[in-house]
Amino acid sequence: MWEFYARSFNASTIFMVAALGELIGQRAGVMNVGVEGAMLFGATIGFIVAKTTGSYLLGFLAAIAVGAAIGALHGFFSITLGGDQVVNGMGIWILGFGLTAYIGYPYTGPLGLERIPSVAGISPFFFLGIVLIAVAWFVLFKTNVGLKLRSVGENPSVAEVSGVNVVRTRYLSVITSGMFMGLAGGIYALDYNPVWNYNFLMGWGFVALALVFFSMWNPFILLGGSVLFGALWQLSLNPELLFEDTVSRYIWRTVPFVVTIGALALMSTQWFSSRWGAAKPEALGMPYEKD
Amino acid sequence: MTDIKHGDIVLAAKGITKRYPGLVANDRIDFEIKAGEIHAILGENGAGKTTLMSILFGLVQPDEGEIYAFGKKVHFRSPLDAIDLGVGMVHQTRKLIPAHTVLENILLGHPKAGTILDMKRAGEEVAQLCKHYNYPLDLNAKVWHLAEGEKQMVEIFKALYRGAKVLIMDEPTSALAPPETEKLLESIQVMTRDELAIVPFITHKLPIVLAVSHRVTILRRGQVVARLDTKQSTEQSLAREMVGRDVIFRLERGKAARGRSILRVENLSAFDDKGAQALTDVSFDVHEGEIFGIAGVSGNGQQALAEVLAGLRKAKSGRVLFDDAEISHLTSLQRWQKGIGYIPAEQRTVGSIGNFSLVENMLMNYHFDDAFSKWGFLNEKKARQLTEALIAEYGVATPSPDVKARGLSGGNLQKLILARVFSRKPRLIIVNLPTQGLDVGATEFVQNKLLEARKSGAGILLISEDLDEILALSDRIAPIYEGKFMDVIPAESAVRETIGALMAGLEKKAAA
Ligand SMILES: Nc1ncnc2c1ncn2[C@@H]1O[C@H](COP(=O)(O)OP(=O)(O)OP(=O)(O)O)[C@@H](O)[C@H]1O
Ligand SMILES: [Mg+2]
Q1: Domain ranges across chain B
Q2: Are the beta carbons of A163 and B100 separated by less than 8 Å?
Q3: pLDDT digits (tens, 9 = 90+) for B83-128
Q4: Chain A contact set for B112 (CB, 8 A)
């Protein structure tokens, strides 16, 4: 029983950190549907660096750095060039999928370092994730930078006439966003499941993306959603931890995705948006053109 | 910058020139604003008023010319530079973030906001400011909850809180109800009296100019044609300088044969975007050759009514009949084909597509016409000819029909939309705020077009906040308040004060 909870929390950590990154970007109006790609980069590069240097610290720094670079790349296409954010995000996913498979292939296998110590089976990153959520909430809602960030996500031209540098603020958020995704990938590959395999993520990033919509762009709801999805995910991997004999695990495997689709479908209805829809950043997905 | 005396020149422009492809929006303009004065800028639509103010605020870069602030030559690279020197601007379109609170909006971009926002101190300081101008505001309210007039004041306080000594206002009254306008003007007058805030403001409402301004600068086609003392001006003289001809302020409504009922609305109710009830059990009919005026302050359900009738919004209950046939289930396109024309209030978002050329915008109401599209191909030549003819007939000031609609000034865009709808000769016209933001000449023009359409037998549903317009045009008047008609009054027995009171929700009577 406890094992189930502990494992759920560990799974939720990865959703939490990745989705928090996505949330920060979206609050500034930049959507990155390539979360999965950025995570693959973070995971693979972090894994390789840690494996070759034997240092977790360097591994994580590398994961964060490559995440920042992916964020900057996404920023270049969707802020500077004003391209379609969804198309660019898909590009990042495909790039991550192909390139990391190629780079990581020679390193297939376990990491071979001593595991990062856990607290009663719960990874320290779970607690880090909660701290990051709280910090992100504080920065978004209580600081000047946060106000600017939310404003460029709501209405960049208003922000501009108020004296906010829209381009700089969006870059700042999209790079930070990438760092979180890279870190999430690093946590996966160095702590959660320290084995490199072909296409090891299989949808984590997409669930994280959905979680952001699910959270209505609120970090604390995101925290709750991540824990819920962590549990669902864990259930889908090892249902036997909770239920003695169960239906096929392949059915459990689909549960997180079915719940995701259900939640998103519900949220896109008129009924929902007329009640709670106001939370969505108004300029989400829209490139900013000065006129 | 601290010791400004009454009458000092605080902001001056010398030889400002701004060219856009094919036109000169500002042509060697000299202009100065003195401390303690309310300086009005007048001009027809497209005369270059907004362009000049945007240059003085650093939002647009001039091609030539110099700007002096407080006696020193300055170069505004962006609004930030202007704000730093004490120049604030209240824009023609609202520049606030609806999802944020009043205080957050005021603090956005404030140089002294600090790294961690000190909401408490800022709140106290802003509250002090509100108190000084006797305009209470709930600083923690979300901006989308506020009335139009309150939003305007938020923008003003935002500028003042940043230390603005010069406040530029672009059509500050065009979206306000009469009582809101009065309150705003009062506050502006107080500001010039004790704070030496200087307010060059732009408006098309001449009585306001005469009532509050000290000096007037008049632009025509990008040039300054007159600088006047308000005291020595009259409505006629201002209008003449602006338009270059005499403007008749009295409309000849004339008689039109009232035909049979063309539109029938029965017990109509509808929700607004937020899912709240906007319209409750409204019934009325519009006849051929009649202007049915709905008078109300915006936000009282007239928007939802217009959209339901145009087929853009689903009714919650009730029926709509056109020519005695139910049309509730018809799409907006099918309604156009039946002869129902719609002129929306939101010119930029519903009425036109900014990134499309004028020709393409014209096609928005013609693409379904066989004469303009055959087997899926648009007849561009024909569309172009039509657009050119209408541009000429309606006097839309534009260098060419190929420019994008976003480049047109507000008034010219409105003319283009009117031209597009009227030229289809609809039998029923639903028109929401037709003269919002139009200059006197254009207003006269539009109102005459409406009367012409009425004379030729069209039924017109006119929605307006402008009581003068409603009284001048309508055959019957329905004041609307909180989604209900307060009464339906024939023009002959309409009294201005009564209707004004009904619009404000006073004297509740059973709906007719
Ligand atoms: N960004 C732009 N691109 C091209 N043309 C422009 C642009 N901005 C303004 N113009 C043109 O410059 C002229 C002046 O426009 P401006 O908005 O200053 O007029 P205005 O006097 O404020 O009119 P209104 O009373 O309708 O608001 C217009 O003919 C307009 O079409
Ligand atoms: Mg203007």
Answers
A1: 9-243, 258-339+426-512, 353-424
A2: no
A3: 888 898 887 677 899 889 999 999 998 877 888 888 889 999 999 9
A4: none
**B237-290 pLDDT per residue, tens:** 888 888 887 776 667 777 777 889 999 999 999 988 767 788 999 999 999 999
The C-alpha atoms of residue B365 and residue B361 are separated, in whole angstroms, by: 8
Pairwise CA distance, residues A261 & A207, whole Å:
10
Please tell me which of the candidates B96, B119, B406 has its beta carbon nearest to residue A158: B96
Q: Is A290 in CB contact (< 8 Å) with chain B? A: no
Report the nearest-CA residue for atom 22 of ligand 1.
B50
Classify domain B258-339+426-512 by CATH number.
Answer: 3.40.50.300
One-letter amino acid at A220 equals: F
Global pTM value: 0.77
Domains B9-243 and B258-339+426-512 alike in fold: yes
Query: Which runs of E-coded beta strand occur in A44-171?
Result: 109-110
Q: Which residues 128-167 in chain B show a CB within 8 A of chain A?
A: 144, 158
Find the distance separating the first CA and the last CA of chain A, reported in whole Å.
Answer: 59
The two tokens of residue A37 are 């790609």
Distance CA A160, CA B7 (A): 32
Whose tokens are 């690279």? That residue is B77
- As a whole number of angstroms, the distance between CA B417 and CA B428 comes to 16
The C-alpha angle with vertex B219 and arms to A290 and B6, in degrees rounded to 5, equals 90
Report the complex ipTM.
0.83
**Which chain A residue is nearest to residue B89, measuring alpha carbons?**
A161
Out of A163, A275, A281, the one facing B79 most closely (by C-beta) is A163
Whether B81 and B58 have beta carbons less than 8 Å apart is answered as yes
A164 — contact with chain B (CB < 8 Å)? yes
**Fold classified for A2-111+120-278:** ABC transporter involved in vitamin B12 uptake, BtuC (1.10.3470)
The CATH code of the domain at B9-243 is 3.40.50.300
